[in-house]
Design goal:
Elements lengths: L44 H19 L6 H31 L5 H23 L3 H32 L3 H21 L19
The structure holds fe (ii) ion (FE2) (2 copies).
The site of one fe (ii) ion has 6 residues, from α2, α3 and α4.
Length: 206
């Protein structure tokens, strides 16, 4: 995969053009002892992605659990599909787009995209499956696929990306990500229950 070569310079932003009064304000977390240490930012795309992975990972556990009831798995899948759609599309259009422009991150960006496409395909098939066993099999495969994808993002891609970027760039991407998410949620793209198989109505709380 992406190997470290020369450090690239991110020319996108100059530190001089810091905006301090964005509507989406940047909050710096103070370290417990720490005045003014800009340790992490709530707008940092890395923090945003990690936070959005959490509920997905939780649902994955149910989807691949040996002990969960079939109905629980199907319910978890419904929630999962909504969250995943919003997360993945926003991630593609903000983070991946950015990564594909940076030589040393480009391959990671494409790899993520390919995995998203695969997951998307399985989601659609699972939504359409009318035979329960088939649907459950697709749900399990989807869970494993996305689990692997998230693992790679967290352990390889994001650390790599972080090395190659500065906080300001990551915040810009983070704001873009949040805006995309908002847009998708308000359009209702988080919820596409076009299948007739799934019994009751979904929650809308992506
Ligand atoms: Fe992803
Ligand atoms: Fe992700």
């Amino acid at each position: 995969m992406a190997k470290k070569k020369k450090k690239m310079k991110m020319t996108a932003k100059s530190p001089a053009k810091k905006k301090t009064n964005k509507k989406t304000k940047t909050k710096m977390k103070m370290s417990s002892k720490g005045r003014g240490k800009s340790v992490e930012s709530d707008q940092d795309i890395v923090a945003l992605i990690l936070a959005d992975h959490k509920p997905l990972k939780q649902l994955i556990k149910t989807m691949k659990s040996e002990r969960a009831e079939d109905s629980e798995k199907i319910q978890a899948f419904k929630e999962f599909a909504k969250l995943l759609t919003v997360h993945a599309k926003s991630e593609e259009e903000s983070l991946y787009v950015y990564m594909k422009k940076v030589k040393d991150l480009r391959e990671h960006g494409f790899e993520g995209q390919v995995e998203h496409n695969l997951a998307d395909q399985v989601v659609e098939e699972a939504k359409r499956a009318s035979e329960k066993e088939l649907k459950l099999a697709q749900i399990k495969v989807l869970a494993e696929l996305v689990e692997h994808h998230i693992e790679e993002e967290e352990e390889e891609m994001l650390p790599e990306f972080k090395k190659e970027t500065n906080l300001e760039d990551r915040e810009d991407i983070g704001r873009h990500y949040l805006a995309l998410k908002e847009e998708l949620i308000s359009e209702g793209s988080d919820d596409a229950p076009r299948e007739k198989d799934i019994p009751r109505q979904p929650h809308h709380n992506a």
